[in-house]
Specification:
The chain is an alpha/beta fold. It contains 5 helices and 11 strands; from the N terminus they run E-H-E-H-E-H-E-H-E-E-E-E-E-H-E-E. The chain has a single domain, classed as Rossmann fold, CATH 3.40.50.880.
Length: 243
């Protein structure tokens, strides 16, 4: 199935960013492409036409990885709504790092997902795998250390995850639900917090393995896609199917 998956990596900037001189989204797209698991992998950014999330791009995306940090407010309501509808109709969504505060994540989860503890002093993060038989954790060690990271700590204002896959511990003593899954409509969602732009976290083999696994897991299954009317809500909750 994997070779039929089309992946798009979205970032709020297409420029060099901290530890990623070629652009953070390009760094992620590169290792996803090199994994040889996916049909296509593209990198897009906020500066592109229609903020990189045109109807055409979304129609040709099975799994979307979303990285944002400082410019959530620049994402238009129209863009957020397009992505929201596509997730409900079956597109997988992987929300990375500070994407927790994005408009799309808040719409899908229905809470103030920007509320959490945080501290940025480059401290060690230990990521514990707590779901040992989940496809996303396959091949990932019981725990691994990130030498320098931004601390995210509880309380994290999200609904109870359907599955809790990873918990992070930081040198200051805080803990955080760093890997969670949700389902909204026909779409699978995975939130994964490690990945600050100042530190080369996305070059770590453990992180790359998790995100490759997550993209494969989040891809929609091979049943007919639910179609949502772009103009109005379908009457009496009845949906059309494309066969």
């Amino acid at each position: 199935m994997e070779k039929s998956i089309n992946v798009t990596v979205w970032c709020e900037t297409g420029d060099a960013l901290g530890a990623y001189p070629q652009g953070l989204h390009n760094a992620i797209a590169e290792f996803l492409s090199n994994s040889n698991n996916f049909k296509t992998v593209r990198a897009v950014s906020l500066e592109q036409p229609e903020q990189g999330m045109s109807e055409e791009i979304l129609r040709n995306t099975d799994v979307l990885l979303w990285w944002g940090h400082c410019f959530h407010h620049l994402v238009s309501e129209e863009t957020a709504e397009r992505v929201h509808k596509r997730v409900l109709s079956g597109m997988g969504l992987i929300v990375l790092h500070s994407g927790h505060a994005s408009k799309i994540f808040q719409r899908l989860l229905g809470t103030e997902t920007n509320k959490l503890r945080w501290r940025e002093i480059g401290e060690r993060e230990r990521v514990w795998k707590i779901a040992h038989h989940h496809p996303i954790t396959e091949g990932v060690p019981e725990y691994f250390d990130i030498p320098k990271s931004e601390m995210y700590g509880e309380f994290f204002h999200i609904p109870a995850p359907e599955e809790l896959l990873f918990i992070s511990w930081y040198e200051g003593g805080e803990v955080f639900r760093s890997g969670c899954t949700f389902t909204r409509g026909g779409g699978k969602i995975f939130f994964f917090s490690p990945g600050h732009e100042s530190y080369p976290i996305y070059y770590m083999p453990e992180i790359q393995r998790i995100l490759v696994n997550a993209a494969k897991w989040a891809a929609p299954p091979g049943f007919p896609e639910i179609l949502y009317d772009e103009q109005k809500t379908p009457p009496e909750g009845k949906y059309g199917f494309r066969v």
